[in-house]
Amino acid sequence: MRSAHAIHAARDPPGMASAAQFCVETLGDYAVDRELPASPGETCAEATHRVLPRRARLRIAQHRDAGIRLMREACILEALRHSGVPRVFEIGVTDGLPWIADELVLGTPLAAPIPVEQVVLVIRDACAILAHLHRRGVVHDGIWLDAFVRTDDRGMCLTNWTRARLGEPEDGKADVHALGTAIYAALPGSAPLGVVELVDRMVAPDTARRPSAAEVAQEAARLAEVAGGFDDPEIEEVILLTDLSRDPVPAISKPKWTPAPALAIPVEGRAPIAILKQRT
Amino acid sequence: MARHRTDTSARFNEGARVGDYRIERELRSEDTGLVYTGTHIVLPRRAAIKVMHPAQAYMRALAVQILREACVLEALSHPGVPRVYECGVLEDKRPWVALELITGDTVAELVARQPLALPDLVTMLHAAADVLEHAHARGVVHNRLTDASIVRTPQRAVPFSVRGWGDVVAHDSNLAAEPSGDVHDLGLVAFRALTGAMLREGDTVSAIAPSVPAALATLVDDMVAREPTARPTAAEVRERAHDLALELAPASPRAVTSDVPKHVEDSPSSFTIRIHRSG
Question: What is this structure's pTM?
Answer without folding.
Answer: 0.75
